[in-house]
Design goal:
Mean pLDDT: 95
Largest sheet: 4 strands, parallel
Protein name: Esterase EstC, putative
Strand order of the largest sheet: 1-2-6-7
GO molecular function: methyl indole-3-acetate esterase activity; methyl jasmonate esterase activity
Shape: globular
Structural class: alpha/beta
CATH topology: Rossmann fold
InterPro entries: AB_hydrolase_1, AB_hydrolase_fold, MES/HNL
Low-confidence stretches: none
Radius of gyration: 16 Å
Length: 195
């Protein structure tokens, strides 16, 4: 787990792209998609942050999270003994991430959750025009219990109104409202002239 880095995430994303794509990052993946855009902006038509962290230059995701006044995930995860990874407390997962999702989706997700490496979330990123000049969109989830809606709003302060939309869901809109999310992504693609 200690060998997993933010840079490796970015490398993996870039390696998977052939033609330019609209890159969607959910939750902590706001950092990896931005790092990928810094590495290869020519492969990315736009960045979409789905109830995700929007990086601040010079800060890590963990620093951003800790600086926010409320901490909804406090006590919801355990750090491994070697401090290389963390895992969410099974009894708190549904309430924090899937409270508005169908039971079958919750079961599917729970069966696939595992430890996550800490290093990518503790790694600062330096932003340049490579990522910041790309079209960027944000989808806020107004019932989110993991990344507070007010925090999501703060991260997009100053963004053009047309680039920020909302869904009335919790942290997992791909389970809670898949059709609405798909339509939102189609609408974003249409604004870019992407089929």
């Amino acid at each position: 787990m200690a060998q997993v880095t933010l840079d490796l995430y970015a490398q993996a994303i870039v390696a998977a792209i052939t033609d330019p794509v609209i890159l969607v990052g959910h939750s902590m993946a706001g950092y990896p998609i931005t790092a990928a855009a810094e590495r290869a902006p020519e492969k990315i038509a736009a960045l979409v942050y789905l109830c995700a962290y929007v990086p601040r230059s010079g800060q890590s995701l963990a620093e951003m999270r800790r600086a926010w006044p409320s901490q909804p995930l406090e006590g919801a995860f355990r750090v491994s003994k070697d401090r290389a990874s963390f895992a969410f407390e099974p009894t708190k997962i549904k309430d924090k991430f899937y409270h508005d999702c169908p039971p079958e989706a919750v079961a599917l997700a729970m069966a696939r959750l595992g430890p996550e490496p800490i290093a990518p979330q503790e790694t600062p990123i330096t932003l340049t025009t490579a990522s910041q000049s790309l079209p960027r969109h944000y989808i806020r989830c107004t019932q989110d219990r993991a990344i507070p809606p007010a925090f999501q709003q703060s991260m997009t302060a100053g963004w053009p109104a047309a680039q920020v939309t909302t869904l009335s869901t919790g942290h997992s809109p791909f389970f809670a409202a898949p059709q609405a999310l798909a339509q939102r992504l189609i609408d974003i693609a249409a604004t870019l002239g992407t089929p």
